[in-house]
Amino acid sequence: MEYRINRRTNDTISVLGLGTGSLPAGDEGVRILEAAVEGGINYFDLAAAESTTFTTFGRALAGVRGKVRYQVHFGALYGPGKSYAWTLNPDKIRASVDWQLAELKTDYIDYGFIHCLDEEQDWQKYQKNGVLRYLLDLKDQGVVHHVGFSTHTPKVANLILDEDVADMMLFSINAAYDYQHGEFAHGSGSERMALYQRCSAMGVGISVMKPFSGGQLLSDKTSPFGRALSTWQCLQYVLDKPAVLSVMAGAGSLAQLHNLLGFFEASAEERDYSLIASLTPGDLLGRCVYCNHCQPCPADIDVGLVNKYYDLARAGDELAVDHYRTLGVRADSCMQCGHCNMRCPFHTDQMARMREIEAWFASRKA
Ligand code: SF4
Ligand code: SF4
Fold first, then answer.
1. Radius of gyration (Cα) for the chain, nearest Å?
2. Residue 299 and residue 307: Cα distance in Å, rounded?
3. Which residue's CA lies nearest to atom 2 of ligand 2?
4. Domains of the chain and any CATH numbers
5. Is residue 195 within 6 Å of ligand 2 at its C-beta?
6. What pLDDT score does 184 carry?
7. I want to staple 181 with a disulfide (CB 3.0 to 4.6 A). Which of 34, 176, 203, 226 is the partner?
8. pTM of the prediction?
9. Average pLDDT in the 42-63 region?
10. Among 350, 351, 354, which is best to mutate for testing ligand 1, by the most ligand atoms less than 8 A from CB?
């Protein structure tokens, strides 16, 4: 397992988390959760499809509660015998949160989430009708440790970020949505990338939902790229995006969980997702996506990382400036050999980028 740090909360979070939409009820669900923790997963999203999921979590993880972190959603309705429903009703949300805590056998929530707001008026209502106040009061009381929010739309995400109340954002990211294909492909590719960069600059971590576009990317028949991507390619794509801390992948069986965990043993070739380049949208064409398909660089430059730090630094992320300066090999080592330009499937003029990056950092005082 690999871990990343949420800069605002200092939490250490596994890059592979677990979504719960497909978690089976009963003993099989318990076995999957126990195996997930054994595999190093410590981050769980609780926007479940069925209320039974909370009972399963209580059975499986109450004994290791201190080692795991939960995203609990204020606006997702659960209760005995109920399937998931969305609401902005404050009384129903209070009752649902109380019920979830009891089933989870816990008295605290690691990340209390403003749940799934995709319309501007829903965010206004959430603030006016007392739900946000309820969430923030629970934070003041220590019941909720940190606040997060979930949305599918960059516009609403930016409105919530403006309030600076959240330490984590749950957002739908995959190659299909970023390339304008699929149900939740909201915002242009540039707008979406700017959102990830803004989160990074603010230190807000991103946990990712729908990494496989609801399975669309995993099939030759439904992938917009004409060929299926593997789960590992999809995970690598998401983990290359700025500010991403953890991917909430679903596991409906132990075999699926073991396949996800196989990511950490996979080779660079098995993770390489450059086949998506054939459909790069116009506004993203020529932009580095940090995939490192152009490696190896004869000067030993980590081309993807150098480009990521540069983009983040220009977006106002001061930490990225420091990270760049501490790299062992930077853009000034580029020999202009042209290997990356020939290899880049996204048509990035990386030779020019290296010159630009070197000049930009040289022009800033250390
Ligand atoms: S230059 Fe191209 S191949 Fe290299 S990291 Fe960037 S996008 Fe990937
Ligand atoms: S042009 Fe520069 S960055 Fe690209 S492969 Fe050659 S040395 Fe590496």
1. 21
2. 15
3. 334
4. 3-276 (3.20.20.100), 286-362 (no CATH)
5. no
6. 81
7. 176
8. 0.88
9. 95
10. 350
